[in-house]
Design a protein that fits this description.
Distance between the termini: 25 Å
Number of domains: 1
Strand order of the largest sheet: 1-29-2-3-4
Order of helices and strands: EEEEEEEEEEEEEEEEEEEEEEEEEEEEE
Low-confidence stretches: 6-58, 354-358
Helix content: under 10%
CATH topology: Methylamine Dehydrogenase, Chain H
CATH architecture: 7 Propeller
CATH superfamily: YVTN repeat-like/Quinoprotein amine dehydrogenase
Radius of gyration: 18 Å
Number of helices: 0
Number of strands: 29
Mean pLDDT: 86
């Protein structure tokens, strides 16, 4: 789970502002500042569906998990909880997203100042792209063939052409950005600036900031529900989620959640947002139609990120200190399984396929 930069030895200006990070438990003060755009991809022909009985047959999914202590990417078959591959990537991989159409996974390497491009068919690295200083998070716009990488110390976003595997623009944003999510239909990217308590709104057609929105204390993870015109921002210093109207770029609600919310992902079809609370070892479930808390679920030690698979009716929560992944049924909002997660799992992304093997 990408931590806010002030939680590391290479922290930028946050420390100078006098804000002290909350004490963390576990082996490492990991990512308490994540942006989680729902790291979910669906293969062609598989679409999200409305809530169904949890006993129905599910598509088969592969989970891609970054292991920050091992500098690897674990590929996990979620049906049988089996390790399908371990892919060496760059130093300190803090995030991953999957582009199913291009059969690629994009892994952000914080200490390597790079992005590893993994062929999901062969589970091999096919390119390494240099980006800015301390890259933290990545979000994809497959239709525009773009990846957006936030650079926490560089205070910028590197825009990658995913067809050419090259950086084509660098967009300045606010202080200590640690999260990004994209609304392709609106041609907008939303960047959380943990050191500025704000969200930078980028026009992805022009690669320019068109608005800056004040939010809560230390915003980290974020996710977009394009159909409802909402962006959800986890404010880790406020123990709350800021709800943005993406048409007006205004905060329309603030929802209290658990301790140190660091990541959020949405399931639009089920009208749910899942918020990871790192201090509480819990996930808060929000009804996005009413912006009300409907459940609080226990997960593993030091949860970092959440990725939602709407087609399979699952949410996956990485537990960085427990080396596990908690599986939540999004039909029933209950914990249904625990997977092996590798060595300090932080970020996760889902690739959903037709029901055969894996």
């Amino acid at each position: 789970m990408p931590v806010t930069p002030d939680r590391h030895d290479d922290a930028p200006a946050r420390r100078a502002k006098g804000r002290q990070p909350r004490p963390r438990h576990g082996r490492r003060a990991w990512p308490a500042g994540v942006l989680a755009a729902a790291c979910t991809a669906v293969l062609p022909g598989v679409t999200a569906h409305a809530a169904a009985a949890d006993s129905e047959p599910r598509p088969v999914s592969r989970l891609y998990v970054t292991n920050v202590s091992a500098d690897t990417l674990s590929v996990i078959g979620v049906r049988n909880n089996n390790l399908l591959a371990t892919v060496p990537v760059g130093a300190t991989p803090t995030d991953v997203e999957v582009d199913a159409g291009r059969a690629r996974a994009y892994v952000v390497n914080r200490e390597g100042d790079s992005v590893s491009v993994v062929d999901t068919g062969t589970n091999t690295v096919v390119a390494t792209i240099a980006v800015g200083d301390a890259p933290w998070d990545v979000a994809l716009d497959p239709g525009r063939a773009r990846a957006y990488v936030v650079n926490a110390i560089g205070d910028s976003v590197s825009v990658i052409d995913t067809a050419a595997n090259a950086v084509v623009a660098t967009v300045p944003v606010g202080d200590a950005p640690t999260g990004v999510t994209v609304d392709p239909g609106r041609a907008r990217a939303y960047v959380t600036n943990g050191g500025a308590d704000s969200v930078s709104v980028i026009d992805t057609a022009a690669n320019a900031v068109v608005a800056t929105v004040a939010v809560g204390d230390r915003p980290s993870g974020a996710a977009v529900d394009a159909g409802r015109g909402r962006a959800y921002v986890a404010d880790e210093g406020s123990d709350a989620v800021s709800v943005l109207d993406t048409a007006t770029n205004a905060v329309v609600a603030t929802v209290p959640v658990g301790g140190l919310p660091v990541s959020v992902a949405v399931d639009p079809g089920r009208a749910r947002a899942y918020v990871v609370n790192a201090d509480d070892d819990t996930v808060t479930v929000l009804d996005t139609a009413t912006d009300a808390v409907v459940a609080t679920l226990p997960v593993g030690d030091e949860p970092a990120r959440v990725a939602v698979d709407p087609a399979a009716g699952r949410a996956y929560v990485t537990n960085s200190a427990a080396d596990t992944v908690t599986v939540i049924s999004t039909d029933t909002d209950t914990v249904v399984n625990t997977l092996n997660g590798g060595d300090e799992p932080v970020a996760a992304a889902v690739l959903t396929a037709a029901p055969k093997g894996g």
